[in-house]
Each structure stands twice: as C-alpha cells, then as structure tokens.
Amino acid sequence: MNRNSDCDDENTQCNGIDDISPDQGHTIPILKKILDLSTKLQDLKHRHIALSDEVKLTTNSFPDPNFLKSFQLLGSEYELLKRKYLHESSERMRLYNEVIELKGNIRVFCRCRPLSENEIANGTASVINFESSHDNELQVICSDTSKKQFKFDFVFKPEDNQEVVFAQTKPIVTSVMDGYNVCIFAYGQTGTGKTFTMEGTPEHRGVNYRTLDELFRISEERRGTMKYELLVSMLEVYNEKIRDLLADSSTQPTRKLEIKQAVDGTHEVPGLVEAPVYGIEDVWGMLKSGNRARSVGSTCANELSSRSHCLLRVTVMGENLLSSQRTRSHLWLVDLAGSERVGRTEVEGERLKESQFINKSLSALGDVISALASKSAHIPYRNSRLTHILQSSLGGDCKTLMIVQVSPSARDLGETLCSLNFATRVRGIESGPARKQMDLTELFKCKQMVEKLKHDDKETKKLQDNMQTLQLRLAAKEHICRTLQEKVRDLESQIAEERKTRLKQEGRSLATASALVSSKKAAVQKAVTEKKPPLGPSKFRMPLRRISNFLPSSSPLPSKKRVGTSSMAPASAHGKENIARTTSNIEKAEGLSRPRRRVSIAVRAPAPSTAQLLQPRRRVSIAAIRLDTSYITTPLRASASGFNGGSNIMEEPCQQSSIRSRKARYSRLFGPLPELRALNENTPIATSKFMGSPMQADSRVAKHPTLVALQRKPLLWSPLKLRGLKNNRRTLVLPSRPSIEM
Ligand SMILES: Nc1ncnc2c1ncn2[C@@H]1O[C@H](COP(=O)(O)OP(=O)(O)OP(=O)(O)O)[C@@H](O)[C@H]1O
C-alpha cells in the first residue's frame, strides 16, 4: 500500500512538474511532499500507538493463571526430583560403601616399577611374571624351579601409568568426602617408586595431586547439596621426630610436635599447620614447598632417597545443606621411607642412624598390621610415631589402602619377597565395617551448648519463680500499706472529731465550773461578810475555828471516771506499773476511807480592818481520807520508812506498833474537829484527788485541819490537764501546786 502511495506520489510529482511554471516548479512539489510526509507521519504515529497497545495487552495477559499453575507444578516437580536425587545419591553412596566393605576396608595394591636404564644396561633380568595380572596375581621367579604366587586387590604392571593407578585408587580416596577416614600408604624397598606413585613428577602427577584434584571436582559437583572445606597439613617423621613441612622454618624455629589424643578420641598434632586450600593450584604450590623441606639423602640404591616418612593429611569438613549433618574426616597420603638392608645399601654414620630409625618404625608398622590381622586385643600403635599418628586411620573403622611397591630387578629379589609377604599379611586383615566420621568436635560443642542451655533454662525458671514470689510479696505489702494508710486516715479523722468533742466538753465543763465557782464565791463572800472576818496574813493567822464546805455537792468528774481516765495514761511499762500500783492503792484507800471527804475552809484574819475587809478572801481545801494506818507515812517517820515522795507513800507497809502509837498521837493532835467530821461525811470528794498527801491516810488521824490543808496535794481533774498528764506519761498522782486559793 505504501509502495503504491509512493508511486502515486511520484506520478503526482511528475504531473505537477509538467503543469506548473519553472519558478513554482520547485516549491509546490516540495510543499506537497511535506504535506504527504506529515500525513504519513501521522499514520505511522497512529500505527505505533495501536501496536503499543497490542504489546501492552500481551504483557498484561502474560501472567496467565494456566501459566502460573504450570510454573508452580514445574517448581514442585523440581523439588520432588531434587529430593529423589538426594535419596538416590545417598543410596548410591551406601551401596558403594557396601561394595568397598565387601572387598575389604583394607585393600592392597601392588605396583612394580619398570627396570631402570642402568638395570637394562647392566642386563638385569626381571624376576616378576605378570601373565596372570588380569586376575590381580603376580608370580615371583625365585629360581628356575620355584615361583611364588601373590594375589592382591590390584596388580599394576610396569607399563601402567599414573592414571591407571589413580583410577583404582580414586574410589577409596573419595570416601573421605562421604565422611570416612582414609589412609593410603606406599610401602616398599628403597628406590621402588613410592615417591613416584604418591607425589609423581610435574609430567606424571602422583596420587596426592590427583586425589586433591578429584576432591575439588567432587566438591564442585556436590555444590548444591554439600558444602566442603579442605585443609591440608604436611609433616614428616624423621628419626622418630615429627616435623611440620608447611611451617616457615626461615622465620620461626622448628617446633617439636607431639601427638595428643583429642576430646573426640582422634589423634591430633597440636601446632601443626592446617592450610585451607580452595583450588588445585594452591595444593600444587604447597606440595612442592613441602617436598622441598623434606629430608632426603643419597644412597647407593637411590640418588634422592627419602630418609623420612612423609605424611600429607587432608582434612575434609563437610556440611549437608539439606540435613545440616556435619562430617569431619581425614585422608592420610603416606609416602613411607624405604625399607632397606643396611648392609646392602652400604650406609654409615648419619645415614645408618636414619636407616635404623626407618627400619624400626616400619617394623612397628608390621607389628600393628600383624596385631590387626590376628585380631589381637592390644594393637601396639604407640611403638612408633608413625603408627601412633596413623592410629585413627589404620584398621578399625577407616578405609586403608596399601600400595606395595616392588622392583622387578633380580638383584632386589630378597626385598621384593619381603615386601610382598608383608603386603599379603596386610591383605589378610579382616577389618570391620568402616564408620562414618561425624564431626565430633561440633557434636561436643553442641552437647556443651545443650547442657548450657539446660542450665540457663533452670536458672531462668528459678529467677522467674523468685520474681513471681517477690511480685506477690510486693503486692501484699502494697495492699497492707494501702490498708494502713486508710486506717491512718480514719484515725486522723477520729482524732480530729474527738478533739472537737473534747474541746466542746472542756468548754462546757469550764463554763459550768466557772459558774459554780462564781456562785460559790458569792455564797462564801456572803457567808464571810455575814459571819467571819477576812483572813489576815499567814503570820498573824489564828487557828481555824470554823470550817465550812463550799464545794459543790458533786464533782465535775466523778472519782471513778477519773480513775478510769487515769488508766488511759500512756502505755509505757513504767507508767503502766505506776498507774496499776496507784489505782490499786487508791482502790484500797477508797475501801478503807469511805466516805471520801473534801473540806473547804475559810479563815478570817484576826484583825479585821476596812482595808483588810476589801482584801480577797482565802479558801483552803482540806482532804481527809480514812486509810489503813499501816500505809500511812508521816513526816516524822518518813526517814525511818524510807519515804521518798508522794508516789512511794503506800509502798512500805507500817508494821511496827511504835509507829502506830505515834500515829495515834498525831491523829489526836491533827484530827478534824467533830463538826468537820460531820461535814466530811457528807462531802463526796474523790480520794484520788488527795492521793500522795502524807496526812491523808486516816480521817481519824487528820485531826488538825490547817496542817492537813497545808500538806494537801491535790489531783488535777481538768480533762486538759489529764490529757497533758497522759502525754507526759506521768502518774495520776502528782505533786502539784497546793490548791489553797488565796
Ligand atoms: N612406575 C614408574 N615409572 C617410571 N619411573 C619410575 C616408576 N617408579 C619409579 N620410577 C623411578 O624410579 C626412581 C626412584 O623412585 P622413587 O624415588 O620414587 O623411589 P622411592 O621408593 O621413593 O625411593 P626412597 O624410598 O629411597 O625414597 C625415580 O627416578 C623414579 O622416577
């Protein structure tokens, strides 16, 4: 369509050129073209919008429910397959281990090196026949007539290269990735290719390098389900001493290393360098530096003879990402020093000493193998450093592979036979099933953590219990506190009420008393004015002649009430005692001296004058109490009876008759007049008011009213004063100012 329109445009253009003038012929077609192009642009814009809408619709319709469903199904299928894969791989591992166990956890391979150039040049014949090697057998031609047959788990011919050797070794070494301890050691006469098999050369890498390469490959392969960490250590046992081959001897002195048994039962060498490796490049560099540090020397059998046992240890720490199961296993790759006949190798001096140590340790290894083979109760692992360090990886629950190296040379026949016999013994060992090595360090840590958690839980529970108890106690105390506060508030309001009431009562009492006093005064004044002259000064005072009682018939506070009030004195021990004593004494005195009397005496002065008449008249209150004479203490006998004051009057009973007679005399002298007696009998006065007076004891004795009046010690009766007494914790009976009113 566009093409047509373009053609149309072109036609139009052609036509236009024909119709218009030469001046307009350039402008109009261009304008037309611009218009056409604008229209086309508009069309294109519309189409773009339409297409964009279409695309939008497609994008929005992308999360189709069916698609989502299928996506979810695929996800669940993936999970299922993953689980199945894990199950299958674990099953494969189990079956694989079963096969290894059926084959025997201690396996023996035999490898024969090729004849060296020198041997070939010397025309040395091979004494080993490999015709039946396909059956893992070899024949040693001892002589023309005798051949000795040996059978191993695998026999490598001289032409078998390193790859073939590792292909057979690989299934065992890779068990370390499944958590099994593995030990591979090369054993044989010196110069038979042990180092060549284990270490190899850069061109012909040995078991060590290939094993680590394989471990890294497996680690990468199991990346989704397992997480591995590889640590490498390298040490040598030289003359029964352990030497760290990875330690930097240039910066730090060579440390003496010892074998220790760890908590989890494994044998460790504390202080040994454990270098983490993350790739084969790291391993190769490490192996090279370790091998450089190794003790080597030249013997007539081998130019670069290993004079020590070299041990490469690979620690594999695995964690199953699905089950979180952790494993920690060791792979020992051991290149033993060569067994040699001292006489034959013609060594002496330091080399001889080295050879003796080497032979001794190899002999110890032979003893351990023999003990394991014969299932002896005691395995002499500790007879040498070599067997001691390999204790966890030799026999028992680990996988062991021995590669016995032999020489095909007729000159080495004797050593070859020795090595093959030894290897045969090793192969005869029936070990139990290998056991997966769980990471016991982690387990131990977990156990410790569990124990700590349990302990912490207990402590937390205890603390929680304590806290709850304390909270309960606190709540109870708060409750008590609130109750007490409420009580205090109630008591305060009660006290305030009582105070008000008392003030009112006091006010009323005072009013009553003042009214009485004023009326009494008026009466007395009247009586005195009518009958008696006013009292003169004391020195001119005449003896009393007449006594009149102007006290009201009833006291504002009855005596019983006052006694009761006194019992409300403060409850101190001393106060209580005093009050009790006083009360009992008062009761006793009341019983003896009833009726109580109070006498008011008005005395007129002897020389009445006009001025004296205007003087205030004096009133004297006299108390006469009938008391048991035995309780009386007079001033005269106060010293004899230990008189100390009013409060002690009744404490010492008077028992002596002489004192009684004196008392009778005093009674006659100071006894009240007969007319006063009559008055006293009708005057109800509180006995307690006069308690403590030395003359109050007996009404019969109180003969002299003036003396009685002067020695009277009145009691306070005002409620206010009583309250004051109460507050001051004073006894009810108190010596006070004489109530003689002037
Ligand atoms: N399978 C083999 N193929 C080729 N060369 C070999 C093989 N085995 C050993 N050799 C060679 O034999 C020589 C001695 O080998 P090697 O040093 O490994 O013996 P060794 O048992 O470790 O001796 P020593 O116990 O004295 O250390 C080396 O030069 C090595 O290259």
Helix content: 40-55%
Shape descriptor? elongated
First and last CA, distance = 152 Å
Mean pLDDT: 71
Major sheet characteristics:
9 strands, mixed
* Beta content: 5-15%
Would you identify the regions where 5 or more consecutive residues have pLDDT less than 50?
1-22, 544-597, 599-617, 620-655, 669-703, 706-710, 712-742
Q: Structural class from helices and strands?
A: alpha+beta
Bound molecules: adenosine-5'-triphosphate
Strand and helix map with partners:
Blueprint: H1 2-19, H2 24-60, H3 65-103, E1 106-112, H4 117-122, E2 128-129, E3 137-141, E4 147-151, E5 154-156, H5 162-173, E6 182-188, H6 194-198, H7 207-221, E7 226-238, E8 241-244, E9 260-261, E10 267-268, E11 275-277, H8 280-293, E12 296-297, E13 305-306, E14 309-320, E15 326-335, H9 342-345, H10 350-373, H11 385-389, E16 399-406, H12 413-427, H13 440-531, H14 559-566, H15 573-593, E17 597-602, H16 610-614, E18 619-624, H17 657-670, H18 674-681, H19 705-710, H20 719-728
Parallel strand pairs: 1-5, 1-16, 6-15, 6-16
Antiparallel strand pairs: 2-3, 3-4, 7-8, 7-11, 7-14, 9-10, 12-13, 14-15, 17-18
Helix pairs in contact: 1-2, 5-7, 7-8, 10-12
Adenosine-5'-triphosphate binds next to helix 6 and strand 13.
